Amino acid sequence: MRNTKYWISILTAALLTCSTSIATEWTQCLGAANGFEKETIKAVADRVHNFQKSQGTRFKNQHWVRGTYYAGLMAVYESTADTAYLNDCMEWGKQVAWRIKEQGGGPYESGAYPLICAQIWYGCYQSEKDEQMMQPTLAFLENPDVQNPLSAPKEWYLENSGHHFVDGLFTAPPALAMLYQMTGEEKYVNWMDACFWDVHEEIFDHDAGLFYRDARNISRVTRNGKKILWSRGNGWAFGGLTRILKHLPADHGSYARYQALYIQMAESLAARQQTDGFWRSNLDDPEQYRMRESSGTGFFIYGIAWGINNGILDHERFLPVAKNGWAALASVVNEEGRIGWSQPPGGGPGNVEETDSTRYGAGIFLLAASEVFLLAQ
């Protein structure tokens, strides 16, 4: 009996040392085993950041690839207060004088894509409280000589091919939500709603609770007779929804509709996560491309972790999804900070190699890290 009491006392002391509450025990005792500690998360984010800085960039000025990467930088700054991430964003903004397109013009890839830059400028504005950072964006949206919500209400967010692409739901609508948060002017929400729900009406599959990349995929099926529901395509939409909900006030009349869609997508995505923590390139047919894929996975972990952090998604239901997904993501970052298994640019599911590494994939990874960092606390 004396030995039993002795070991019980030792076990009790060990548990108390490990944690003082159930929540802390969960993150410290279990999290330490798989890197789910904020120090570990920050360290791998820094490694990714430092590697990207060492590589320079081919995508100069206002390009969606660079914009997606810098969105990840800004998110990590907002979560960790590490000014190294903010400083990179400030440097880019100053280089291009806070414009959302290159000076002198040139055709856009689409009306939706350039607004990704406005999201970065808004983060800088929130830090510095310098309204001059946002003036070029505000002026662009009022300029009658370019395609914008005033000059082309139903066309400004179309791609050059004339199609609605799901990609634009990450670039443009969150920027408009941020402008509403900044100004309180309802027109920005009206423009956001018109863009988002027009695209949603055309390419959302209500049965699956997920998006097609564009209308051309609606009638196509895989060899297994499954739908073509691209992982990263749905990542653009889910990431965009997350950022809209982050900046649109919860009491706004448009908020509930976005939240309902966000929850619907979160449930659909959770059901499609594979046992290794990744999502496959085709969400409806994981057998089409059986290899892991990190860019879609990164978006989903970003959005799901944000939902847990903000009390929108059930902690017990979704925490294992976030933890398994983060462990998967962290596993494809090598010692120098290069992220592997990131599907190259494309318009749908495709083959992925371990050596595939992209700058936008690094940005998506950093988005995920920014919310998992907060979740681990």
Key phrases:
58% helix; single chain; 1% strand; 15 helices; Glycosyltransferase; mainly alpha; 377 residues; two-stranded antiparallel ribbon
Protein described:
- The protein is an all-alpha fold and 377 residues long.
- It has a single domain, classed as Glycosyltransferase (Alpha/alpha barrel), CATH 1.50.10.10.
- Helices cover 58% and strands 1% of the residues.
- Strand 1 (204-205) and strand 2 form a beta hairpin.
Give me the number of helical elements: 15
Main sheet summary: 2 strands, antiparallel
% residues in beta strands? under 5%
What's the helix-strand series?
HHHHHHHHHHEEHHHHH
Based on the coordinates given, report the CATH architecture: Alpha/alpha barrel
Q: Ends: how far apart? A: 40 Å
Structural class: mainly alpha
Shape: globular
The pLDDT mean sits at 90
CATH topology-level name: Glycosyltransferase
Strand order of the largest sheet: 1-2
Q: In total, how many domains does the architecture comprise?
A: 1
**Regarding CATH, which class?**
Mainly Alpha
Number of strands: 2
Rg, rounded, reads 21 Å
Question: Helicity, in percent?
Answer: 55-70%
